[in-house]
Amino acid sequence: MIEVKNVTKTYKTGDIEFQALKGVSFTIEDGEFVAIMGPSGSGKSTLMHILGALDAPTSGTYLLDNKDVSTLSEDELADIRREKIGFVFQSFNLLPRTTVLRNTMLPLVYAGMDEKERTERAVSALKSAGMDETHFYHLSNQLSGGQIQRVAISRALVNDPSLILADEPTGNLDTKTGQIVLGTFQKLNEEFGRTIILITHEPEVAEHADRIIFIRDGVIVEDTKKHQKKKVQHHI
Fold first, then answer.
1. What is the reported pLDDT for 96?
2. Following DSSP, what letter does each residue of the chain receive, concatenated?
3. Cα 138 from chain centre
4. For a designed S-S bond to 140, which of 67, 94, 159, 211 qualifies (C-beta 3.0 to 4.6 A apart)?
5. How confident is the model at residue 234, as a pLDDT?
6. Predicted TM-score (pTM) of this structure
7. Is residue 185 helix, strand or coil?
8. Can you give the pLDDT at residue 227?
9. pLDDT given for residue 32 in this prediction
C-alpha cells in the first residue's frame, strides 16, 4: 500500500539549510497498524506531512497504492487527500455549534454527495468508531474530549479511505480517555481491517500498534513488528 524509498526533506531559510529527513525507506502493507514514534525534532511530523500528501519530499519516492505521489499536481493531491486518506488531528478540528452527525458528514457535503447517502455513510462511520446513537444530534461542544475525538475519527472514516493518518490523537486527552480512543483505533484495525498510521512521541501510545517505526534526527533507527495478524479490509 505504502512504499517510501530514500525520501529526504530539506528546508531552506536564506542560506541556511536544515535536513529534516535523511534518506528514509520503509513499506506498509494493507491492514497494518503502525506507530511512527520519535522525540520533538526527529522528523516524524515532516514524514507525516509527506505521507498525508500535504508536502512533497525533496528527493526520493513516495508510492501510495502504487501511485507516485511526488509527481502529482495540486488538484491530484487534493483528490488523494479527499479519497484515500482520513486525517485525525490532536486538535480535533470540529465545528463547535454543529451536530455530531453534521460534523461527520461534512467531507461528503464538500464532495457533492446527496443528503440521503451522506447521512447513511455518516451514521455507519459513527457506529464504526463506537459512537453512541444517542449523541448523534448533540452539538460537538456538548461532548467530552473522548467523544469529540471519536467524532473526528468518524469524519476521517466517512469517505472510506484506504489509510487513516492520526497525528498525536491523544495529545489533548487525559490518560483514561486516551486509552479509550486508542482502543477505537485498535478495533478499526482488528475488526474492520483499516490501515492506520499513528504519529506519536509517547512509547505507551505507540505500544497499541502492531509495529513501531522509531525515527531520530531524520533517520529510522528501529523498525519493530510485534506480531502478525491476518486482516481483511471491510468497508463501512
1. 82
2. -EEEEEEEEEEEETTEEEEEEEEEEEEE-TT-EEEEE--TTSSHHHHHHHHTTSS--SEEEEEETTEEGGG--HHHHHHHHHHTEEEEETT----TTSBHHHHHHHHHHHTT--HHHHHHHHHHHHHHTT--GGGTTSBGGGS-HHHHHHHHHHHHHTT--SEEEEESTTTTS-HHHHHHHHHHHHHHHHHH---EEEEES-HHHHTTSSEEEEEETTEEEEEEE-----------
3. 25
4. 94
5. 42
6. 0.85
7. helix
8. 59
9. 96
Q: Report the first-to-last Cα separation within the chain, whole angstroms.
A: 19
Unique residue bearing C-alpha cell 502493507: 29
Cβ atoms of 105 and 159 closer than 8 Å: no
Q: What is the pLDDT of residues 31-61, one digit of tens each?
A: 999 999 999 999 999 999 999 999 999 999 9
Cell, residue 189: 484495525
Flag residues of the chain having pLDDT under 50: 229-236
